[in-house]
Amino acid sequence: MRISKAPEERKQEILDTAMRLFSIKGYNETTMADIAKEMNVVKGLCYRYFDSKQKLFEEAMDQYVIQCSEVFLNLINDHSKPLSERLDLLGSLMIETDKKSKYNSFFHKDGNEEFHERLTIKMCRYLSSYFKEEIERLCECGEIKVNNPEVLVNFIMYGQVGLLSSTDKNIEEVVRELRHYIDILIKG
């Protein structure tokens, strides 16, 4: 018996199935045929929604970036808290989100470091404009003084990628160090 699903529901099912299989078998070893078989559908259905496995994966990452970023955006835009408190909370959220994210088993699997770095860069790109707007707002109201908010935000956002990916320290230590450097940059 054929089960008909709404297009968005079917598309999400393909994305979730693919990410689960990528986590189990690995990205390179998983084919569109494997995804279809796991879903008990014909391979053509997967191709109807996604031209290639690469496009499927890119959409899964883009969707995941938006999902993971929501909690950060809520905090960035919470004007009821001073910047220093929000920055502390952002660090805690970074640790918490990293540990219990939907596709954590894929992005933190040994051998998938390159995928994790790509995800991190996409998150930085997505969040940077929101963070820049908030820094500009804080400058306008006199809470902080920064000559070039865009440079500051890019330095903070993209600088953390290098620190997080090139150290043997645990994430809690790195986040503490990042927070220290951010204070220096903002107060500097």
Descriptive tags:
188 residues, single chain, 75% helix, Arc Repressor Mutant, subunit A, Tetracycline Repressor, domain 2, 2 domains, elongated, mainly alpha
Major sheet attributes: none
- CATH fold type of the largest domain: Tetracycline Repressor, domain 2
Q: What is the end-to-end distance?
A: 67 Å
Overall CATH architecture of the largest domain: Orthogonal Bundle
Structural class: mainly alpha
DSSP strand tally:
0
User: Which radius of gyration do the C-alpha atoms yield?
Assistant: 20 Å
Care to describe what's here?
The chain has 188 residues and is mainly alpha-helical. The chain has 2 domains: 7-50, Homeodomain-like (Arc Repressor Mutant, subunit A), CATH 1.10.10.60; 57-187, Tetracycline Repressor, domain 2 (Orthogonal Bundle), CATH 1.10.357. It is 75% helix and 0% strand. The protein has helices spanning 7-25, 32-39, 43-49, 53-76, 83-99, 104-107, 113-140, 149-165, 171-187. It is elongated.
How do you describe this structure in short?
The protein has 188 residues and is mainly α.
Layout of strands and helices, then pairs:
Blueprint: H1 7-25, H2 32-39, H3 43-49, H4 53-76, H5 83-99, H6 104-107, H7 113-140, H8 149-165, H9 171-187
